[in-house]
User: Which sequence fits this backbone?
DNA sequence: GCGACGCAATTTGAATACAAAATACAGTTA
DNA sequence: TAACTGTATTTTGTATTCAAATTGCGTCGC
């Protein structure tokens, strides 16, 4: 078995249908192809995904635990509506977790992780300059994901991610204005710097404020609609 | 329909099997009748509860999302083992949420809620004096639940409760020493006072410290075992 | 005797079938 | 015509069945 370029030899990954369905449905909800408030038609979606109701229902129940859908007994599931009240409710919780992430990441990140985040940041900056929204969003997620990972606390990342979906969905609808985009870049610049200096309290504060500013932008967008 | 003593006339509550099962299984895990590390025998437990595998599996998957059980594809579910590492991981997250709960409760609680928490506290104190462990535990949970409620943020309470189960289980095993019990009472006394004065930063700090002390006690107990 | 292999039994994942409840709709009556 | 009632249809909740993977055990070979 001494072959050149031997692969890492990890266990092959087996994904239960329910997990794939959770991911697919969550993406549809976050991106709005399953609009807020929309009733979830079990039969139709099972048809679409080519699965039976059993794993599909398991997935829906998991999303309900995450707060992305509401299940009413005997009346089916519906995508949780986006309300300002809900966002205001999620914000302080996620804010506390973002601050903690900053605190831990500044103290625990390896130098390599910091370097990687800086690299992602620079890459994102060039996407900003090219006004490439899709790539920007993707890198943005990657950076926040890398921060969670750098904090080295899986419970923290899972909890924060799960709450984050509820905001991401609103942010996805609210289209990024030019001014907000510029501000977001500046904020990223600032907290990347704080991470580099391993200034824990500062990074914590900046991440919480970054979230607060995101929320403020969503608030504006929601107000505009009404 | 003008009857004396008319009941509040709420919708009658219908509990899906999966929800009852989640509660039952969670209690078994927290109380240790499903010991940490134990493999979950689907067929046997379905037999016990008198339900089929479908709702049972839904319940197990929900508990997996909560972190109380681990599901390995094609190899079934097992109760998550209690490890010091896991507790240390949950602690900072729950700590941040407890602090936030204190912050919000001090600011948002109604006077009636504060009065109720004080009443619960006094009742708990008498249980302590009578050394009635069972009643003490129950009131303890009631107080922390009332604090979450007073904070007025359902997302916060759901998240904190869900993480709390993972610690409660460890605390349940580690038997309460006399010194720890006395200290816990003093801590409760202090934060009840802070709530009464609506001192948000103090309440936040005290609740986090209370959690920290709980964890320290569990740490000791775990070390004793080894 | 010890270990590898192959088969049977068990267990898990997913699909289907059945029961109960909700919704839609038509007929009836005021 | 408008509202109510009863029935048919659809949808949801749970049970059962089927297929695939894993585990346990016995046999064979060394």
Assistant:
């Amino acid at each position: 078995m001494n072959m050149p370029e031997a692969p890492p030899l990890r266990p092959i990954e087996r994904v239960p249908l329910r997990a794939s369905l959770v991911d697919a449905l969550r993406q549809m909800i976050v991106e709005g192809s399953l609009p807020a408030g929309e009733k979830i038609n079990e039969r139709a979606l099972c048809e679409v995904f080519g699965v039976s109701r059993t794993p599909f229902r398991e997935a829906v129940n998991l999303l309900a635990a995450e707060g992305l859908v509401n299940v009413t007994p005997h009346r089916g599931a519906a995508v949780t509506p986006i309300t300002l009240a809900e966002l205001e409710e999620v914000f302080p919780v996620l804010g506390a977790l973002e601050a903690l992430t900053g605190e831990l990441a500044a103290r625990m990140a390896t130098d390599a992780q910091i370097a990687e985040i800086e690299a992602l940041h620079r890459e994102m900056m060039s996407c900003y300059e090219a006004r490439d929204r899709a790539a920007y969003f993707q890198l943005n997620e990657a950076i926040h994901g890398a921060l969670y990972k750098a904090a080295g606390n899986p419970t923290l990342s899972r909890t924060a991610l799960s709450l984050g979906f509820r905001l991401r969905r609103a942010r996805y609808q609210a289209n990024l204005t030019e001014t907000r985009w510029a501000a977001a870049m500046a904020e990223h610049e600032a907290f990347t710097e704080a991470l580099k200096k391993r200034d824990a309290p500062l990074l914590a504060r900046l991440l919480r404020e970054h979230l607060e500013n995101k929320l403020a932008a969503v608030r504006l967008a929601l107000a505009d609609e009404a």
Observations:
- Chain A has a mean pLDDT of 94.
- The interface with chain B takes residues 14-16, 18, 54, 57-58, 61-62, 65-67, 73-74, 89-90, 92-93, 96-97, 99-100, 104, 153-156, 159, 163 of chain A (CB under 8 Å).
- The two ends of chain A are 66 Å apart (CA to CA).
- Residues 51 and 114 of chain A are 42 Å apart (CA to CA).
